[in-house]
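Ticket reopened. Same input as before:
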Amino acid sequence: MQIRRLAALVGAAAVIVTACSTGGGTAAPSGGGGADCTVGVSWNNYQEERWAKWDEPAIKAALDAVGAKYVSNDAKSSAETQASNVENLITQGADVVIILAQDGEAIKPAVAAAIADGVPVIAYDRLIEDPAALYITFDNVLVGKLQAEALLKVKDSGNFIVMKGNSADANADFLREGMVQAGLPPAGESNDKLKNVGESYTDNWDPSIAQTQMEQFLTANNNAIDIAFVENDGMAGGVIAALEAQGLAGKVPVSGQDGDAPALNRVAKGTQTVDVWKDARLLGKSAGEAAVQLCANKDIKAVSGVGTFKSPGGNDMTSILLTPQAITKDNLNVVVDAGWISKETLCQGVAAGSVAVCG
Amino acid sequence: MTDAIVREEPPPPARQGIQLGQLVRSLEVDTRQLGMIGLLAVIWIGFNIASNGNFITARNLWNLSVQSASIGIMATGMVLIIVSRNIDLSVGSVLGFVGYTMAILQAEWIPNALGLGFDQPYTWIVTVLVGLVLGAFIGGVQGVIIAYGGVPSFIVTLGGLLVWRGLIFRYAQGQSMGPMDSTYQLLGGGPRGAMGDVLSWALALLACAGIAYTMWAGRRRRRRYGFPLRPMWAEVVVGGVSMAAVLGVVWVFNSYAWPPSLATQYAVEHGITEPPGGLIIATGVAFPVVIMLGVGLVMTYIATRRRFGRYVYAIGGNPEAAELGGINVRRTITLTFVLMGMLCAVSAAVQTARLNLAVTGLGVQNELDVISAAVIGGTSFAGGIGTIPGAILGAVVMQSLRSGMAMINVDSPTQDIVVGAVLVTAVGVDAWLRRRSGS
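Engineering reply: fixed in the latest deploy. New output:
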């Protein structure tokens, strides 16, 4: 009995070890280098494609440009591991730490300890509610504003609907706030030009739910919907599928964000009006450049381009909010030139001559 | 056979109350399903009032039928799983995994990796077959671990829920996959993905003939084995009402005409000059609904007429007795999960085709809707009780609530609250009624 139990344990351990050993191995302390600046990056889950493909090379390039050193480690989606990883980076000689937080709350003690040690911290992409850290992210309010502006440029009056993201996600409200800045009436309200005929949060940003919701909005309004303000690309897919079933795809302006391949394809086909794109490389570049500045001067308020961002937790965060880019049919070449999407994928099923980049 | 008991007439009634009860009993209809139809009627009428008459329209009922299809298809399999005292929490993740695979197959692998190009005539069938095999395999793996490995189904499928979802994220890397093959898209419905009026009427007549034949065959069988017969008037009532229902539903779907702008598109594509009033094309029954009805029919047949189905109910009624009675319990349980996996694949095809897209979150929380549909449809967690038509009706009830609330602008967190409350209430009332009637 004892032996069997032991065997089972060993078996289980073997499975775990095999599972873990397939990934990881990202800690890459670079040797030599002339500059006296070392930047440590704590990834929360390096195995997600995006970080290795877009963000890390951009950070490295910014550091290489001035001869700064790059060290990193991976928390493999564990908040506890990440806390000790931050300490390890400082032990390895990091002068500045960039953190892609697994959990913005759980990492706070480690961040406070680093700052107390005289090591400035950059909260990368995700918010860490500590006003002593520098927060670098894309401006989500601006994303909403760009979405609404692009749609209102096409059609500035009539019946509209708003398809919002998950109600528990603060971004859903940031985006909606940006739409108000662009001139859309606030939630549940109308003005003399724009009439709100439907507005809904969507569980998990689920495209299927958005599709059903849109079908019901269309039925309730007998198809009299002129503009669809949709907060991301997935839900835009659902909304456009519902419009397609009524023969309205391409006639009703629809927005989205994320730069999803199928969404960019829809922009090329003309069924989606705008896709607001957040270029991850821009994020990496500005974080790298900010880190280099922090090596010389530890005051986060002295970094170029900083502003103040009122966080959901009520903190005045020193932050760099990057500008996302609105991609429409007219500037699709931007995503192709950036290598974000292949021309074949973008142009599949697009009528010849309708989009410049597709030929 | 000569001394067959043929009881054409009910015994003389003693009191008015009993008389009514006996009338209902002679009809031999499932009173629980009647209750559910009543509940559905209340929901529909309520939403129709709240939406100023927009709910009970051909268009909305047609929408509702398509929206219910995916959950309805899976609910038929969930009935057998729950009847045999198991549970499958992984259906949403399996749907997502299979759906994403089918999407990547038609949007990447076949056209790009194999270089065969988009929109080939065989793409959709290859995709669906691969999906079915994959679904059966996944279900089989889980079923074997449950039946032969002795791990409770709750645990195995909870693990499955995490594993299959995790695998999607791993190989999708957060990317959405689309658009779908143009033929494949028809599986998801939409006016183009529907049968049109002629085929729909043909289907309705076929169904009526089927009802008549089933009733005739059932009566003959009863006489042969000496079972009491349903009085003739009851046969006529039940048959007449069923046929009227079939014809009525098809009539509603046929009276939903293609949306004008889509009809115009069609006219342009086919070089038809539009008549002054616009081209009127009847939509008819949507393909996903045809699939759901087909699945429902086959599953009912399996559950009630095949040895496998009867074994499932026997196991649910008393697993030990079933085992001692010589039923291969392990094999039967494994097969229920294989079946469930295949049904997940069918629903995955319907969902990805309908959305024209696969996302990493495809099918998230569908397990809850599927289990709810089965349970609202009268499937008991105690095992041994549950019907396929009930589960489909349960799916329609659930979707009616969601669509109705969406129509009157109740957003999804509030919808969840209402659906949750209705689920518990429905099952609670059902349990109470069952205790009262002492069955």
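The mean pLDDT of chain B is 90. Chain B touches chain A through 48 residues (CB under 8 Å). Please confirm and we'll close it.
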